[in-house]
Amino acid sequence: MREPVVPLSFSARGTLTHNIQTNLSRLNFTIPQNEMNEQVFGVGIRDALLQLQTQHQLSPTGIFDDDIKIVIERAIADLTISTQKYLPYGKTVV
């Protein structure tokens, strides 16, 4: 059973936000460097989520929730098969 995600939105900070940024970057979304440095949920994440939500017929909220988490996980899994490593949410890279 999947662990539910507490919805994250604009101005959230921390490891989960950083992992979202990293995974969106792997999907070729551009996250501004200052947002990456500060591990903040800013316009970069919001805009990427809005695009993904629209592409996958989800309500375009710009909020990171369970539905968009699944979309991102599946997209990363497709990449992982051939080229990349998935960074699970809530985990820290050592």
From TrEMBL:
Domain annotation Peptidoglycan binding-like: ranges: 16-67
Top-level taxon of origin: Bacteria
UniProt xrefs under InterPro entries: Peptidoglycan-bd-like, PGBD-like_sf
Protein name: Peptidoglycan-binding protein
